[in-house]
Each structure stands twice: as C-alpha cells, then as structure tokens.
Write a structure and sequence with these properties.
The complex is a heterodimer of chains A (347) and B (340).
Chain A (H helix, E strand, L loop, with lengths): L2 H20 L4 E7 L6 E6 L2 H4 L16 H8 L17 E5 L1 H12 L8 E6 L7 H7 L7 E4 L3 E5 L4 E5 L6 H4 L11 E3 L13 H7 L3 H12 L7 H4 L25 H14 L9 H5 L7 H15 L26 H5 L5
Parallel strand pairs in A: 1-3, 3-4, 4-8
Antiparallel strand pairs in A: 1-2, 5-6, 6-7
Helix pairs in contact in A: 10-12
Chain B lengths: L3 E4 H11 L4 E7 L5 E5 L18 H4 L4 E7 L20 E6 L1 H10 L7 H9 E6 L25 E5 L3 E6 L2 H4 L12 H16 L7 H5 L3 H5 L4 H5 L7 H5 L6 E8 L2 E8 L20 H20 L9 H5 L6 H10 L1
Parallel strand pairs in B: 2-5, 5-6, 6-7
Antiparallel strand pairs in B: 1-8, 2-3, 4-10, 7-8, 9-10
The chains are: A alpha/beta (347), B alpha/beta (340).
C-alpha cells in the first residue's frame, strides 16, 4: 500500500472508531478490501472492531452516497407507513466523501433524501480513482492477480508478467477532468484540501462527439450501448437513482420494453441520462460498475455541459442554490426549447 | 472414437469448411477490448485465451428475447389472436472455444428445462467445440462445484491445445458430423502422451472437492436463517450483473408485445436481484429487501437446486466474482455455508 493510502486508511480507522465508540454515529460507511485485486467492497462499520477493516486506496470507485438514503432509513426505529418519525434525534451515519461524493450528498440533502443533521461527513480530497477497464486494457487483458499501489504508480502482476503502470494514465476519465476533487461539505477532514483544479478542456470527450453529424452521433450512441445487457448496474450504482419504482420497472404503463432490443436499450439509456440532468456530479460510478465497458458517463457529461451553458450551474456545490431543473420561475426564459429554434421562429 | 489431431495451420480451413452448414461463434475481441462471443467471419483462426470470455454461452440457448409465438392483434383481422410459430429458422450453430464450465452449464440447465421445447431445440441445433483448460484463472473454482478443468460434459468435441496442433476427441453424433477427414490425421504417440500429461497436470492443480453432497446434507432452515446473510448482502446494489453473466441463471419473465396490430409473446431474462422479480399484483413483495434477494440467489444455486436435482447450480466459472461491482464473492458464501 502506498504511504499516502496507508496514512488515510489509519486516519479513517481512528476517526470511525472514535465516532462509533462515542456513539456520535450508529454506523460508518466506508470501504474495505475485496477478494480480488482492483475491486473494493463498500462496507458499513457498526462498532470499533469493524472500523479496523476500513481501508482506502484508488479503487474506491462506487459513490458511497448511493447507500446513504437506505442506510439512514434502516437505522430508524421501525414504524408503519404514514406514522410520524419518533421524537428526538435519529441515529446518525458517518460517511467518507470525496469531492463528487460530497456533492451528491448535497444534492440528496436538497432533494430531501438525506437530512444534513443525520450525516457526519468525513471529507477526503480525491487523487482520482482508477479505472479497472483502463488497467485491463493497459496489460492487454491478461489476468491480473496482484496490484500494489504506490503513490504515483501501480505494480501489476499476473502469472506470467509484471508491469509498472503510471497511476495517472489509468485514472478514470471523469477523475482526470474533475475540477472539484475537494469535498464541498464536510464535518471532519482527512488530509488537506488541494483546491480546485484548472482544466480548460474538461469537456473534450463531449466536444469531440458534438462535432459529428446527427447520423454519426446516433451511430456512435448505438455502438456504445450495443453490448448492454440491461443489468441496470449503472442505474443502481447512481446516488441520484433513488426512486421507489424506476420507470423501467413500471408496468402500468410500461414505458420501456424488457429485452435487449436496440430500441428498448436506447430508450433506457436516454431516459436514465436525462433523469440525471442538472443533478449529476460526474462521479463515474455508472461507468465504473458497468460489466460491459459502456461509457454511459459521456451521456450525462453532455447534459452536465448543457446545464452549465444554459443555467451556469453545477450541482452540489452548495446547499442553497436551487437545482435548476426542479425550480420554476414565472419569468423563466424559453429560448432553450428546441422546437422554437427548429421552426425558425424569431422572437 | 479414436482421437484425431489437426494442425493449427489447417484448423482455420476446417472451420471455414464448416461455415457452409453452420454459423460459427467464438470468443473474439470486441470493440470494447475484451473477448466476447461473436460470429466468426472466417478470417483468422480464433485464439482461445485462458479463462472464460465476458459473457456465458447462455444467450445462445436462452435468446434475449425468445419469441414464443406471434399473433395478429387486430380484432377485425380474420386471423386475429391465432398463434403462429415464430418465422425465423436459423442455421445450426457451432460454438468454438467453449470452456468446460460453460459446456457443463448446458447440461445443468437442461435439467429444469428438460420439457422446454425452445431450449431443447437450441440444444439440438448447437454443437459445442470445447477447449479443456490447461490452466485456470484465479477466479475459477469449477472443481468445487462438481466440474473439472478438463471435464468434457456438454461438449460435442473436446479440444486440447498442444501448441502446434489441436488434439481432438469426438464425443457425440453431433460432434462426428463436424469431422472433416481431409484436415485431420491420427495423433503421433508423443501427441497422445502430451495430451495425457496435460490432463493429469490440470487435474492436480486444485484440491477442492465437490461441495454438493456436503451442502445437501445440511439442514435447509439452518442455512436459511444463518447470521451471515446481512453482512453478505449489505454492499449489494441489486443490479443484475451476476445473474445476467452467470451461465446457470436461467430465470425468465414473459410478456406480450404488440405494435401496430402485430403481436408477439416473448420470454426474456429476469433476475432475482430485481425487486420486480417477486412483486405480486397486490403490491406485496415476499422478497422486498435485498437480504432476501441475495439469500435467494445463493440458496437457489447452492441448496435448493442440489436438494432437488443433485448438483449445484453453479459451474465455478467465476464471472460473478470477476464482475460484481461490490465484490460479493460466491466462494466466500460457499465457505460460510459449508461452515454452518
């Protein structure tokens, strides 16, 4: 383990242990090591003993905010539907949060899925998480049996090879173009803040696709999702997806066909992306968990760019600015409505 | 039947010859980089790499979706709602480069599907050219589930890769129909002994034993109520990665689709990880939380199926271990169950 990760791991363990011991939180949400190299397991510590299993490295790719609403709910005393919550404070959860995770917690707070006073956010400035797919590509899809992370490199071992890989080369696309690696809201901080990063071309992947013609873009989109198996890992790994019944699961009416017919798969991906517009923080969870290597993050990245251009807004940077797509004002401009422009109507 | 050998230089010709009668599928590099089942275009001989490709071969046996029948859905049509067989009659298929675990999955799946005409027809139409495993991956555990890295169950032809040549053993009538003597020759003594050595070596690699009988002898409710299910299921995000990549997850749902008067009934993959899987019309869901769903998946594979049919409903291919985004490892579950 790299010295940086070692230090962070120790701090996480001691903060979590003291929070759990003092009763400040009932559960602490973090990561523990997995059984295969390059995959970490989200982990809920419930006592000081558990806290010793917490661990930190560059493979913590799934956004922990994803677990928050259900974990908080599970800690409430059981009650019937419609019954008010009991009086007095409800049990709290400690949670690790990098830049994007903390922004997703902020969105969850704004959308009334998480109560601010029930979470103790332990912030960590992110150095960028590693893409397992990039790593697999870097070693030519040979089986990796061991990974040793150094501060700036990875020692990757297989049964018949050994490779040293520059860490930044295999960091996820979203992390490479992230300008907010620091946690936005936090109660405790591990390590130091590193400040916003300046990346002038952070939308380059999207801009490249935007230069294509409509037909070429449609072709690109269909190629990208062709291998989709409709496992919904992307949806389920997303901290924005908390609907009790997702539109794909509705049967009255049924919005989307159930098999992997291209039209159904396309509809799923388009709708999923649009539901994230103005809320997505580009945490990359969806892309990281996709077993088939689909880069669905690019769909939401395009919407992130649109929202930034149209509303000058990036989600989750504070708790006070309302989310643009769930806010209505009588004098909202309408010039973004595309039919307007298409018809050639000039105002 | 006596074994053959085919020179690798000739193997491409052999397969090309078969292309006239069959559609050949093999694990080929996809546009995403990894190897996955794709139609072979008849150019270079497919390279069968160590381990299993991304997806299992179940999509060939359980098409996504399977059209069960078609109908006209306009009441005014004289043929309205008369069921018609789906029209397409595909060429028979060859799956080239199937590993022993995947080949065995067809045998296991055909136990519950023994009276299913759709599955059985696929089984008749698909020939499997299997490749025995000289070496497994770190996520492989076939011996634990009653298989073997050099098992031939479910194969029509078993191939051992000897470097320069393929050692070929024909195992069924379907396999015999794939023999093209002009490309084959009798193996030299050295080739026979090499093949034997390779099998002995592969068998000796793992010491794990079939867990089926130990699990069958355990009391069901004790496993069901075991304390570890909460811990195992806690990180689960309820996606269908494990079930959809699994060669022996065969659960389905059925739906009628109609569009502009044309209707069809389809059978498509369902996953016990999805809440909808057990949702009742009343709104009640007997497996409403993820603990119950995760428990069901493992109990079905490792207890209910063996109790009813004998073997585990798992072939140890390790795809779920490899691809689970939160590292829920079925080998750990097996250990936990065996220790209960």
């Amino acid at each position: 383990m790299s010295s940086l990760n070692q230090k962070i791991t120790q701090e996480i363990q001691s903060i979590a242990a003291s929070m759990l011991e003092s009763g400040q939180v009932a559960a602490f949400l973090g990561y523990t090591t997995g059984t295969i190299p390059g995959v970490m397991q989200p982990f809920v510590a419930r006592n000081a003993q558990d806290a010793k299993r917490l661990c930190w490295n560059s493979f913590c790719v799934l956004n922990l905010a994803n677990y928050l609403p259900s974990l908080l709910k599970s800690l409430e005393p059981p009650r019937r539907r419609g019954e008010p919550p009991p009086e007095g404070p409800l049990p709290k959860v400690g949670v690790l949060a990098t830049g994007c995770w903390s922004r997703n917690i902020a969105v969850q707070i704004q959308e009334n899925q998480v109560e601010r006073q029930r979470v103790v956010i332990v912030g960590i400035s992110s150095r960028g998480m590693i893409s397992r797919r990039k790593l697999e590509t870097a070693v030519g899809y040979k089986e990796i049996v061991h990974i040793e992370e150094q501060d700036n490199s990875l020692l990757v071992k297989g049964n018949d090879f050994e490779d040293t890989i520059n860490r930044w080369d295999v960091v996820r696309d979203n992390c490479q173009t992230c300008i907010h690696p620091d946690p936005v809201i936090y109660d405790e901080l591990i390590g130091t803040l590193n400040g916003n990063r300046k990346i002038p071309d952070r939308f380059r992947q999207v801009e490249k696709i935007e230069t294509l013609s409509t037909d070429e873009r449609w072709q690109w989109f269909n190629n990208e999702i062709a291998s989709c198996i409709r496992c919904y890992a992307c949806r389920n790994a997303c901290p924005l997806c908390y609907c009790p019944t997702c539109f794909v699961d509705d049967s009255r009416p049924q919005w989307v066909g159930k098999s992997i017919e291209p039209a159904d798969t396309a509809l799923f991906h388009i709708l999923r992306a649009y539901h994230c517009a103005g809320r997505c923080t580009d945490c990359g969870s969806c892309e990281s968990v996709c077993p088939m290597g689909i880069r669905m993050r690019l769909f939401t990245k395009k919407l992130q760019k649109d929202v930034l251009e149209l509303y000058d807004f990036e989600p989750g940077l504070d708790l006070d600015t309302p989310l643009p797509l769930s806010t209505y004002k009588i004098d909202d401009p309408e010039d973004f409505i595309l039919t307007h422009i298409k018809k050639g109507d000039k105002k | 039947m006596k074994p053959f050998v085919v020179e690798k230089a000739q193997a491409g010709q052999w397969l090309k010859d078969l292309c006239d009668t069959f559609d050949i599928f093999a694990p080929l590099p996809s546009i995403k980089g990894y190897h996955d089942w794709q139609r072979w275009d008849g150019s270079n001989l497919p390279v069968v790499r160590k381990g299993v490709p991304k997806s299992s071969i179940k999509a060939f046996f359980f098409p996504q979706p399977e059209v069960l029948f078609q109908f006209n859905a306009r009441a005014s049509n004289p043929d309205a709602f008369r069921l018609k067989e789906p029209t397409c009659h595909p060429k028979p298929k060859i799956l080239f480069g199937v590993r022993p675990c995947d080949a065995r999955s067809v045998i296991l799946n055909s136990i519950p599907y023994k009276s299913d005409p759709y599955f059985q027809r696929k089984k008749e139409e698909i020939a499997i050219i299997g490749f025995l495993c000289e070496e497994g991956c770190s996520t492989c555990f076939c011996k634990w589930t009653g298989g073997s890295p050099v098992g031939k169950e479910g194969m029509d032809i078993a191939v051992i890769d000897l470097g320069q040549v393929f050692h070929i053993e024909v195992l069924s009538d379907k396999g015999e129909a794939l023999v093209r003597p002009q490309f084959f020759r009798e193996p030299a003594d050295q080739e026979i002994s090499e093949a034997k050595d390779l099998i002995t070596k592969a068998q000796g690699q793992t010491l794990e034993q079939d867990a089926a009988s130990s699990l069958r002898s355990k009391e069901l409710m004790k496993l069901y109520n075991a304390p570890f299910w909460g811990k195992i299921s806690e990180p689960c995000i309820n996606c269908g990665t494990c079930t959809f990549l699994c060669p022996t997850c065969y659960c389905f749902d059925i739906q009628d689709e109609t569009l502009r008067g044309k209707g069809r009934r389809i059978r498509y993959w369902d996953s016990c990880m999805f809440p909808l899987f057990t949702q009742h019309a009343s709104g009640h869901n007997p497996r409403g939380d993820k603990l119950k769903r995760v428990r069901n998946r493992f109990m079905h594979k490792l207890k209910y199926f063996p109790d009813r049919f004998g073997p585990l409903s798992c072939v140890g291919c390790g795809r779920c271990v490899r691809e689970c985004p939160v590292n829920i490892d079925i080998r750990q579950v097996l250990k936990d169950l065996l220790a209960t």
